[in-house]
Amino acid sequence: MRPLALGLLLCLGCGFATAQNSIREVDFKNFTYPLRGILLGHDQLQWLDKATGANSKRNAIHLVRGDDLTKSSSFVMEGREYTQWEGFTLESVQFADVTGDGQEDAIVVLHYRSGGTQQTDYVYIYSFAAGKPKMLAYFHSGDRGRSGLYKVYGENGALVVELLDPKKMSGACCSSGFVRTRYKWRNGRFEVSGSREYRELVIEDHTPGP
Predict the structure, then answer these.
(1) 132-151 residue pLDDT tens
(2) Given pLDDT bands bounded at 50, 70 and 90, which one contains residue 15?
(3) Per-residue pLDDT tens for 26-63?
(4) 168 belongs to a structural domain
(5) Is residue 114 a part of any domain in this protein?
(6) Between the ranges 50-54, 66-70, 199-203, where is the mean pLDDT highest?
(7) How far is CA 188 from CA 80, 95, 137, 184, in A?
């Protein structure tokens, strides 16, 4: 009986040690995220909380140590292998109140690379309840200059999303402006709040002085 009791105590101790007390303790580097819709060809932000068609379901994203990648191609040059990877990597995790309830939420950005030039970002919003994260909503951005993700953050109880302005594109990769949209959490979803703001990108001059 003694070894069994000792084992139970050890298990209980492990459970208490790994219990999550806040959203900041969630291990988003080793986490499973839902995924819907097509992966490439996006030219705008789209919320993906609901199915968008018969073929909208995809395999979930299973991050391990911050990525879920598979080898798409490789070649050897001068005895060294060069590899192209396809899949998701964890870009950032921010904590801010984006629902206006005074509690911190998590804003998780996953970057998808195709192994080629096309790419996009997926943003997941989680609250924290009953000792575990609860997904509120998620969306994908466009592709680079076509409404690609510039910034996302929380401000004054709202979610703020900044996308590169497709009307100011300079090639598929870039844009000289961005569009800022604020979202308020209402009736179980994020809704646009106020007017969109159109801004110029400010490129800092790092030229050394005289």
Answers:
(1) 999 999 999 999 898 999 99
(2) very low
(3) 999 999 999 988 888 889 999 997 544 444 556 899 99
(4) yes
(5) yes
(6) 66-70
(7) 52, 19, 9, 10
On whether residue 8 sits in a domain, the answer given is no
Containing domain of residue 45, as a range?
Answer: 20-72+83-200
Q: Into how many domains does the chain fold?
A: 1
